[in-house]
Structure formats: structure tokens, C-alpha cells
Amino acid sequence: MLLALLTACRVNPFKSEGEHKYFSSKEKAIEHYIEDNDVRGSVEVITTKKEETILVTQFRDNTYFVGELKEDDGEFFTAKLSANVHMERGGAWELNSMNGNEYTIFFKKENEPNYKQLSNDEYFVSFVEGHAFDEHSSNHNNPITDIENVKE
């Protein structure tokens, strides 16, 4: 009875039964993400100015999706933020982080200002804060602060 009472005292807004699987390290959470989503391509970890960890994921040759890695009380979990998108020459789509921040992600074959190259050399990627498909707008402030490959 005491054990159940102590367990019930820890309230966690992200943990709900079956919603996320938690891990003791970022690496283990990302390994699970890769296996759970049957990823056969690369995974890039992108850190934003708002300290969010976005996972740009090459699902198959020309198919990508976006996920997120999140920490909660020293434990880590991942979630898929977008559907799979098949691209031949590039693309863009809107997404929301788990904190509710809005972004638009852009993929291009050629490098341009505010773009970062993915490690698979297939695309250059950029984000815009907000849902806006005009990447050349005056408010194009790429929120990417760091990009690291975790799976090739």
C-alpha cells in the first residue's frame, strides 16, 4: 500500500500508460526510435534555439519524416512529429514540437543561406519558426543551432 502511494505521488504530464517508452539515456531512446520506426536511412539530431531536439529521419531512400527526442526527469523518450513524406527534388511541411512550437521544415538539393547539409549528402535542410511556406520571407530565422548524425 505504501509503495503504491509513493508511486502515485510522482505526477508526470508526459507519462501516460502506453503513450511513450522511457529510457535512461538519449542513445537508448534513439536506438528504440530507429527500431520502432524501422528506419533504414540516416537520422540527424537537430538542436533548436528553443533547446528542442528534432530528429530528421530518412525512413527509406526518398522518404523522410521528423521526430523529437525529449527529456523528462532524467529519462528520455521519442515521438514521431510528422507523417512520411516522399521527395524526389525536395519538399517542405509544417510540424509542431511536443512543446507546441510551430516550425516549417525545408529540404533542398542545392545549398542556400540558412541551410545545413544532411550527412547522407542527399539534401540541405532548414527550418522556419512558424507555419510559413515562404522560406525567403524577411522573418526567416533558422532556429537550428546544431546538427549531428546519429545513424548513417
Automatic annotation (TrEMBL):
Protein known as: Uncharacterized protein
Organism: Piscibacillus halophilus
Organism classification: Bacteria, Bacillati, Bacillota, Bacilli, Bacillales
